[in-house]
Write a structure and sequence with these properties.
About 20% of the residues lie in helices and about 25% in strands. The N and C termini lie far apart (about 40 Å). Strand 3, helix 1 and strand 4 form a beta-alpha-beta unit. It has one domain: 3-Layer(aba) Sandwich (Glutaredoxin). It has a five-stranded mixed beta sheet with strand order 4-3-5-6-7, with helices on one face. A two-stranded antiparallel sheet has the order 1-2. Helix 1 runs parallel beside helix 2. The radius of gyration is 16 Å and the shape is globular. By secondary structure, it is of the alpha+beta class.
Length: about 140
């Protein structure tokens, strides 16, 4: 028997209005406004904020993976941190400092969308992975 996953959730807002919320496959969190990320005045590399948004728009990911550019995600000692959650898999990356790495992250997201499920990260991203929590979230980088 094949399981069918609902594409929307019916949610009742606090004001009583019924809202149909589209379920997404994932969310990409980009630390771009934190105490270290993108802070060139503190000696850290810039965060290519515009490129993140342009790639998200160009690849038409809006209804599949949400993009959030925000403040601190931690850990600050790594700087320019990105968290990708896809199909329940949290993947942390650090030092996302240049355009090639941003493109690699979006290529990876598109590969998972095409595969219709989670796949392991590509070799270019493996050295930038880390896990800052007590539970296992990602494969250990070699």
């Amino acid at each position: 028997m094949e399981l069918t996953v609902a594409k929307r959730s019916v949610v009742w807002r606090a004001d009583g209005e019924q809202i149909n919320v589209l379920k997404k496959r994932g969310q990409l969190f980009v630390c771009s406004l934190g105490c270290c990320c993108g802070r060139t005045d503190k000696g850290f590399a810039p965060v290519p904020q515009d490129l993140h948004h342009q790639e998200w728009e160009r690849r038409k990911l809006r209804n599949k993976v949400h993009l959030t550019q925000s403040g601190c995600l931690g850990p600050c000692s790594l700087a320019n941190v990105v968290l990708l959650v896809f199909d329940g898999h949290p993947l942390w990356f650090h030092s996302i400092n240049d355009e090639n790495l941003v493109i690699a992250i979006y290529d990876y997201i598109e590969a998972m969308v095409r595969a219709d499920g989670f796949i392991e990260p590509p070799p270019v991203l493996l050295p930038l992975m880390f896990d800052g929590f007590t539970w296992a979230a990602a494969p250990e980088a070699g």
